Amino acid sequence: MSTIRTIIAGTGSYLPARVMTNDDLSKIVETTDEWIVERTGIHSRHIAADGELTSDLALAAARAAIADAGIDAQEIDTIILATTTPDYTFPATAVTVQAELGLHHGAAFDIQAVCSGFVYALTIADTFIRTGQSKTALVIGAETFSRLLDWTDRTTCVLFGDGAGAVVVKGAAGEGTNADRGVLTAHLHSDGRYKDKLYVDGGPSSTQSTGHVRMEGREVFRHAVVNIAEAITESLAATGLNADDIDWFVPHQANKRILDGTAKRIGLPPEKVVLTVAEQGNTSAASVPLAFDTAVKDGRIKKGDLVLLEAMGGGFTWGSLLLRF
Ligand code: UT7
Predict the structure, then answer these.
(1) 211 lines ligand 1 (CB under 6 A)
(2) Residues linked to residue 173 through DSSP beta bridges, in sequence order
(3) Overall pTM surpassing 0.85 (yes/no)
């Protein structure tokens, strides 16, 4: 049965120039390179320069994705930007990107699902495309997460970094089978009972300030391993595919131990897991598209490959998405 599929037409990413190593952090808080590497797999992360905003990172990633897709930016009719660190409380950072790209048509909006933001945004774009609401969409995950960190809290400030990743997606005719290119299935979840496990202690309505990240790391870790594995099982069950069919696993890059544990749980060999956490840390909504672009550009992910995306973050929110590149 013929159907419309949402295919990835181009990918792009951007990392700020400044690199902060674990040794740099050990001069700010009581920590060591050894502790951070052993507990998280992180060696360094990128930090946005003063005055460099989430929209700047998003725009650089967007331009790279548009160039990679080989399209005229004017074709884009929808911009969905996933971020927890918008330039301003409003308007949406997506409209700044829209204006900078010279687009005056279509819709541009932000979505907030913290670290799961990109998986949410790509799922929304897929729905827009399959229902005819959009023909060509730009989906971005961009964060200046360093701006939310309490640099005196060693339990959080060592984990995160800044960056952006983007994809251009387009509608294309498919057969309605797993052999089609494009998004094959997506599964989103949230459970607000756990909103206090990972949150920012400020906001316009509560404190009229931005606030800082607070996290019960061990609790988040425990739920992440279970929730992610369940969401992946859901995507496989919905398509009838097996873990063996997956060519590349592109997870949210929170902690290498979580990713190793998840891959083992679903029976994926480590060589199929795309890992960027060592050099980028946890870039929240940017981590999945950053890792995706990395593996496309270095030639690992090839046209026709089956790729599994997943993420889990504050809320809790989590989800998985299977696509054929
Ligand atoms: O993207 C959103 C999702 N976020 C996540 O998925 C994060 C999930 N959680 C984690 O990745 C891990 O829980 C952490 C990496 C945050 C922490 O690792 P852990 O193995 O769970 O350590 P812990 O929190 O149980 O802390 C162990 C010890 C504590 O000391 P005591 O109480 O045992 O004496 C901490 O105070 O390590 C201490 N500690 C540190 N020591 C050196 C905590 N942070 C640091 C640090 N350097 N940066």
Answers:
(1) no
(2) 4
(3) yes
